[in-house]
Automatic annotation (TrEMBL):
Residues 122-283 form the HhH-GPD domain. Keywords: DNA damage, DNA repair, Glycosidase, Hydrolase, Lyase, Multifunctional enzyme. Its EC number is 4.2.99.18. Gene3D superfamilies: 3.30.310.260, Helix-hairpin-Helix base-excision DNA repair enzymes (C-terminal) (1.10.1670.10), Hypothetical protein, domain 2 (1.10.340.30). It comes from Mahella australiensis (strain DSM 15567 / CIP 107919 / 50-1 BON). This is DNA-(apurinic or apyrimidinic site) lyase. Belongs to the type-1 OGG1 family.
DNA sequence: TGGCAGGGTCATA
DNA sequence: TATGACCCTGCC
């Protein structure tokens, strides 16, 4: 991959391997990217609006300076990881092989831990379109405005911003019984009682325990935050889909603990990416 | 049209 | 360790 500055606010990634936007954005790891009518995706992440499109083997980012690319998007899109090598070491399992073929070009994003935390608290017992709707509504009401091509977009609100409101106010975003979890978690983070940066620097198990102290955060949500927001490859979020497929193919009547242990022994630090391929594959092929 | 389940978590027993 | 309730929505 070569990074080229095409003009003042356009970056072109020349000849990118293992990169396919639809599989990155539609695999359920993020909630704020939407396909545009022109075949690109537009999203808000890390305090920026970005439009991204694929042109043959190239990827075009706009509006984006070289400085912004290096500071934000290189890491966000996991561009220094060698997905060829990752797939090679995961190869050999028939189901996972099919899943990797199906989800070609998928990548694990490095999202903002705070946004990830609230997003996955909202995801509990919920459906993806509604999750997206709630996050959008929270951002519109409480997030900073960003403009792009004459349209207003909204950044995800800060801990301070969300902590300032009552559960009843937050509930107007249709997040239902999750509203008190959101407000309380925002207060704990805003007040510095729990420090996400510190959790990020912990080893996986310790970080998992620390996150579970937050209201609305159970084992599944904690694993999602660790995997999608803190780069912990050992995290293996077990949801109904994963539980179903693991029980069916590998471990009948397994408990949550059994499944996580099995995943770590089998995949190690690639457990999370294996989970993501499996999740996307079974979800997309069972409707 | 009503019932049901959805990328889980929490409170109880 | 195992159940049931839970805000809402979309689908059958």
């Amino acid at each position: 991959m070569t990074v080229i500055q095409a003009d003042d606010d356009t970056i072109v990634l020349d000849n990118v391997q293992h990169f396919y936007l639809e599989h990155i954005f539609e695999s359920g790891q993020c909630f704020r990217w939407n396909a545009s009518s022109e075949g690109s995706y537009i999203g808000v992440a890390m305090g920026h609006v970005l439009e991204i499109r694929q042109q043959g083997p190239n990827v075009v980012l706009h509006p984006c300076t070289m400085e912004e690319f290096e500071r934000v998007w290189r890491r966000y899109f996991d561009l220094d990881a060698d997905y060829g090598a990752i797939k090679h070491s995961l190869a050999g399992d028939p189901t996972l092989d099919k899943a990797m073929e199906f989800g070609y070009g998928m990548r694990l994003l490095h999202q903002d831990p705070w946004e990830c935390l609230i997003s996955f608290i909202i995801s509990a017992n919920n459906r993806i379109p509604r999750i997206k709707g709630i996050i959008e509504e929270l951002s519109m009401r409480y997030g900073n405005q960003l403009e792009y091509k004459g349209r207003i977009y909204y950044d995800f609100p800060s801990p301070n911003e969300l902590a300032r409101h009552t559960p009843d106010e937050i509930c107007e975003c249709r997040c239902g019984y999750r509203a008190p979890y959101i407000v309380e978690t925002a207060r704990i983070i805003a007040g510095g009682e729990i420090d996400l940066k510190a959790i990020e620097s912990m080893e996986y198990h310790e970080a998992h325990r620390a996150l579970m102290k937050l209201p609305g955060v159970g084992p599944k949500v904690a694993d999602c935050v660790l995997l999608f927001g803190m780069g912990k490859g050992e995290a293996f979020p077990v949801d109904v889909w994963i539980k179903r497929v693991v029980e069916q193919l590998y471990l009948p009547n397994a408990s949550l603990k059994d499944i996580k242990k099995w995943a770590y022994q089998r995949f190690g630090r690639l457990a999370g990416i294996a989970q993501q391929y499996l999740f996307y594959y079974i979800r997309e092929n069972s409707r």
